[in-house]
Amino acid sequence: MRGLTLLPLLVAIVHCDTLYFRPRESPVSGVSCPDNKTVCPDGSTCCAGKTEEYLCCPLSSAVCCSDKIHCCPMGYECNVTTSQCQKGALIQSWIPSKDYKKKASLISGNVMCPDGQHECKDGQTCCKLASGQWGCCPIPKAVCCSDGKHCCPESTKCEVSQGKCMRGTGEMLDWFEKEPALLRSENVVCPDGQSECKSGQTCCKLASGNYGCCPIQKAVCCSDMKHCCPEGTTCDVSSGKCNRGNTYVMDWMDKQPAVVRAGSVMCPDGQHECKDRQTCCKLASGQWGCCPIPKAVCCSDGKHCCPESTKCEVSQGKCMRGTGEMLDWFEKEPALLRSENVVCPDGQSECKSGQTCCKLASGNYGCCPIPKAVCCSDMKHCCPEGTTCDVSSGKCNRGNTYVMDWMDKQPAVVRAGSVMCPDGQHECKDRQTCCKLASGQWGCCPIPKAVCCSDGKHCCPESTKCEVSQGKCMRGTGEMLDWFEKEPALVRSENVVCPDGQSQCKSGQTCCKLASGNYGCCPIPKAVCCSDMKHCCPEGTTCDVSSGKCKRGNTYVMDWMDKQPAVVRAGSVMCPDGQHECKDGQTCCKLASGQWGCCPIPKAVCCSDGKHCCPESTKCEVSQGKCMRGTGEMLDWFEKEPAVLRSENVVCPDGQSQCKSGQTCCKLASGNYGCCPIPKAVCCSDMKHCCPEGTTCDVSSGKCKRGSTYVMDWMDKQPAVVRAGSVMCPDGQHECKDGQTCCKLASGQWGCCPIPKAVCCSDGKHCCPEGTTCDVSSGKCNRGSTYVMDWMDKQPAVVRAGSVMCPDGQHECKDGQTCCKLASGQWGCCPIPKAVCCSDGKHCCPENTKCEVSQGKCMRGTGEMLDWLKKEPAVLRSKNVVCPDGQSECKSGQTCCKLASGNYGCCPIPKAVCCSDMKHCCPEGTTCDVSSGKCKRGNTYVMDWMDKQPAVVRTGSVMCPDGQHECKDGQTCCKLASGQWGCCPIPKAVCCNDGKHCCPENTKCEVSQGKCMRGTGEMLDWFEKEPALVRSENVVCPDGQSECKSGQTCCKLASGNYGCCPIPKAVCCSDMKHCCPEGTTCDVSSGKCKRGNTYVMDWMDKQPAVVRAGSVMCPDGQHECKDGQTCCKLASGQWGCCPIPKAVCCSDGKHCCPENTKCEVSQGKCMRGTGEMLDWFEKEPALVRSENVVCPDGQSECKSGQTCCKLASGNYGCCPIPKAVCCSDMKHCCPEGTTCDVSSGKCKRGSTYVMDWMDKQPAVVRAGSVMCPDGQHECKDGQTCCKLASGQWGCCPIPKAVCCSDGKHCCPESTKCEVSQGKCIRADSLSMDWFEKLPALRTRNVVCPDGQSQCKDGQTCCKLATGQYGCCPIPKAVCCSDGKHCCPENTQCDVSSGKCKRGDELSMDWFAKLPALRSKNVVCPDGQSECKTSQTCCKLASGNYGCCPIPKAVCCSDMKHCCPENTKCDVSSGKCTRGDGLIVDWFEKMPLAVRSRGQGEASSVMCPDGASECEDGQTCCLLASGKYGCCPIQDAVCCSDHVHCCPQGTKCDIQEKKCIGKPAANLGVISMDMIQIQGKGQEKSHLELLLKLPTENVECPDGQSECKTGQTCCKTAAGNYGCCPLPKAVCCSDMKHCCPEGTTCDVSSGKCKRGNTYVMDWMDKQPAVVRAGSVMCPDGQHECKDGQTCCKLASGQWGCCPIPKAVCCNDGKHCCPENTKCEVSQGKCTRGTGLVLDWFEKLPALKRPGLVELIKKDNTIVCPDQKTSCPDKNTCCKNKEGKFGCCAYNNAVCCKSGTYCCPKGYICDTLPEICRMPEAKEAWKNTANRFIQNILRRKVQEQP
Question: Which of 107, 130, 764, 1066 is 20 to 30 A distant from 1220 in Cα terms?
Fold first, then answer.
């Protein structure tokens, strides 16, 4: 069964060794024979038989024998005599024809339809369908019906109305339906691209290396290189069979040689082509069309064609044979435009149309023989589009399936150029021929080496003759061919000028920028330049950089193309007369007129007829009008055209700048002129670009538009050249014009040769061009042994003139000119000396004449009128040249050269070569010949060398009296009218009082005349002042420790320290000693600075940099001056800075004088001891000392002006500049606005290296604050706590300071306060200013919105990702949404980059949050007292507990003080000592109040006496009694009357009883009444107003819940009460949040607003606590508070242990925690582990009340009698009658008298009847009793 599986596939006829087959279910394909009837099988050959029909030879491309019966294989000859096929010695039998007739009948081909594009199966008929397409009728020779759907058999008629076919007999038959015809299949192209097999065959390699054809589709090619097998089988070479598995299926098949692919047929117009075996025919439109058969007859209807040897019968629409037989004719289709070759990406190679460029292993391009091919990675093969290369198998895969063998690439062809026509103006394409047209213009014949026909329209192939009368080309054999039409030649295209105007690409290319910044050439026109700066793509596509492809939409079109560097634009060729020029690549030739002309080819031979020229190495044959080569070959000669007069440069409107001829002057953004590289250009409004004439600039697209069409990219402008001056001759005294050469004359004087870089001839009269030699004997210039041109005459040189300085000192005019003001106010130059300047600001007149502006003339005294002259702008004076030592300088246009002394001298020419004799110098491009004292160019002596002059030592600048401004050396500081400092351009000038002008020394300002007057009465022009320069800052070096002067560059020295290069932006040389100017490189071997390959100058020495100086701190510790300045008080009392060191501060509060001088305030001068008077200096306000920069970790900090950057260790480092960019190497940083180039270790701005990057230094761990001994105040790190006169703590701004006894000042360590002098004295008697103290800061944490967490002062509460609160280490921070970070105020969190942004600019790294503190107070062992977190409980002398303000403190035995952990109290010295000898002051303890009853307490301020306290937000102030009272505002100023206080920032005016000044709260200057101090303490005076009441929890309105003191009850969404963590809060409507008093809730933003301003985030509420009950003791009569334990006391009564589930100790006083044991002997509590704890004291239990009060729903209280009701917050008390009344206190104490009641916590005293605290006894019995009684005592009122 397996052997039968191929039967459906093949219908085989076997004869000898030949196998025929027909593919299954596929259209029959074959070879159509010329009779258009016979179709032979694929792989056969049609051979004419003895009759009219064709026979089929079973061999491809066979030889048909002349007996018209047999055939032989290709390459053999038929031997009719022997009936054999013969090829040399090879002989084989031929094949009888009878066998092949049978095969031809069995296997006929398809039927081709008239359009030549479609075909029907054999035995079918082509018929048109209703759509106009061709269809197939399923019977032969059918009649096609007119309905376009059906057909009928031969000899019948279509009866469309009946849908039948009718015979002539009337018999009706069913008709047939048509089906669409098939498109004719193409041949199969073999992998070599040169061979092809028929459709349905497979290409297989033969042993010869050529390709053969296997006669089945998708065949397997056998390894013997001869046979093949069907798909799905394998070749068994040993048996010659095809196997499927192990079963033999069939014999294998022979391959036949493949056919070489045919080309296309070119139509006579040379523009169109038809496919191989088609015929070109004209269409009715006049265009060329293609007839689908070879050698066809073109029919006159312009649509159809007929086979060879037939005639068109247009009337019948048929083709007629000579026998009268009629055939269907064929339709023509339009011919194809000849396709261009495919240009490869290198722009140098090309492949044929329909091929693909692929890189070869050699790097050149090859051609894959199919379009859009995939180039394989082996660099040899390629595969079809949509497949992949399988290199291991050498196949092309589609998915996982092998599709076909891959294909070989062939080397690509180098692109051919164009053919230039003899006029040099026109050109034809490669392989065309230039022919004159009838118009006389040049045309192009579309074939090479063509014969140009005399009709001026046509041409014929080489070796043929034009037969114009017949319109044909005739070969020598008489054969006639169609002739060809000419088309007009193209005008030779100019190269494409690139936008920089310096580069150009060939015509048809596109200029594109390269990565180097230069321009490159894309090898196609209107290309798209890719962003990789290397490639380009065709117009209408986009560059896909990732794939290296060009895309149209989403489809890959082709590989992108490489750019080639553009060519620098060539100049022109100057003719020998020096007046005319030809284009680059042309030759100057004399015309018959004697004028110069241009031959259009280089190095041409000029013909004697004065009109023509010939190519190099040819000879003019004037008689024949040809050019003859040495071989006798004749060429067309070329025509000359007149040469162009050399154009002058274009002078720009400013008169100072110029552009080259053919360019256009355009203004740049700088205001200077630039040059557009084309003439009559349009200057674009962006001030950078330009467009051609007749176009407009489209700034948005960067294009030039003509109408609405983009024409081209716009062009870049180049800066215009300042109009060239003259060439200075070696003597420095004479000069020649720009573009000339100085040459010695025979007289010894200098003369001028009219060309640049000329060779000076020895006759002293003539010169020759560069690169030639003077032939004195012939008077010619030679190049080698050839005469090039006549030599040129020299002219005498001009003596050099100096310049005239204008009165502003900034501008100058040429020698012999006069400075005159222009209308603009700028200085201009009148071109004559001692001119009169006219008032119109434009013109001037000669000396001794007068300007007549109305007439535009100059008038002499005689009345004679002269033309006036125009002024031109004056030139800015040029700067001097600084020499490499940085100390010497030469004039502009000179060169610094070392002298033998080691100093620098000046060579009088720019860019000079310094000679080794250390005395002379030579021009650039020459060398010094010391032996001859000459300058040489190559081997030629150019000129004598020049002498050097000593250089001038550079001077510094002049500092003006304000210390902020400076003038240049040789100038004088003068005040301007504005009060600013200006500079007079001359030294020791007299400053005129008009504030604008100045006069020379020893003259006087005559302001009324605007002149300067000498003592002799001579009048001089005065000078103008210009604003002085602000003194420049020094340059800080990358280490942040060193600095160089302004205009210098920091460079590393070999020592590792920094040195200073004496020029800005210098290049630091690798020898660590020298440096070179910007734009040059160090050549260490020569010790020179190079620009490119040219030595520019000697390198420069570096000097060690200066260590950066710090600042000077002023005595107040708050302000500072710069290093080298002196702190002086200003008239305002603030500190100012005198701009000189160790200055004397003048008493006027504005000025200062140098050290060792005296202020003469009346004269406004400084006087030396000698009586010499000096200008004094002005002071400027001192700077407020800057804070350090806190790093994002909140733990590190850098100095002000530095930047925090992460180090590789993860810690922070400090970059020594502000707003720095942190480099990714984690070591370096760069300035703001630059980027780090890690590879070079540089900082870049754009693509330019700006400077070396900088080193980071490790950041300093943030120092804490210094806590003062009261534990309530602190000073900044580096300060010292000192008591102020008020008794408060203050801060001395220096560490370890000595506190002075005046309570205001302090002195440095190891000095002594001399209060009488107000100084600090050292042991060596050195006296210095003392320092002022500042008030100490109160330490306060920031409470977070949950009320449970807090952050340190200066931090911000932010929610963490856990929902807990964290602390951002900066104030008013923005909390980031990632729950981890935060950013500074007014920035935004950019979570994606991990940065904080301000606007669009990345500002800084964000900060990490730290967990917030949850502070709890420390409970003291008595259970009644507590200390704050981080404090320690210590017993006081009274027996109560006090608080030591530090954690884990040691309690001292004096019962007053304490010391830090691990120290010891030294009571005798009042110090804390450590074993290592460290001694510190000890700390004071302070008592705290008894623990409040509620769950929280309001914080309080402990006063300095440790015994008194004020409420939070108040200030302790000393009263006249010596006790402390409370000022009800925070950080208040305590007034000296000990009665009042004022807000911070104001001053107490005791007489007016006002507070005067500007408070801290930005309210402006105010005047307000003083505030009285509220009394506190144990002994209260009559001035004391209020007593602090013990704090209670806040009871919520439901009576069931309570919040801590200082909180507010707010309803929650659940209906319960929650606690807002601030007092008098506003409850928000979302039932979750709250806001401070005086604000409103903005629910949409989650903020609290005051007016329209967001104040803060709103706060979360916490659930309120259900009011706790009490614990009832076992006797049922007593109770303890919730959380306590009832224990028996020694008295037998019940007491309360202050902890729950306590163990009651048997001493009757103490108790211990649960799970511990009382150790009474030790007075401790012990755990089983041995841990020892302090025990707790018990308190007496409370007696339970017998009756209770009830609370109604309306919050009124029902008294125990169930009759009396009291208002809310009242207490029921019995009156004298025993009835209940109401006390206006909540939880009040009812007095026994029944008359009064007291607040909770107080007791009723009967004598007198007042309310007092339990500890206040006799002290209360004084004159304040009645007042206190009125304040605190309440009457028990009857029920309201």
Answer: 1066
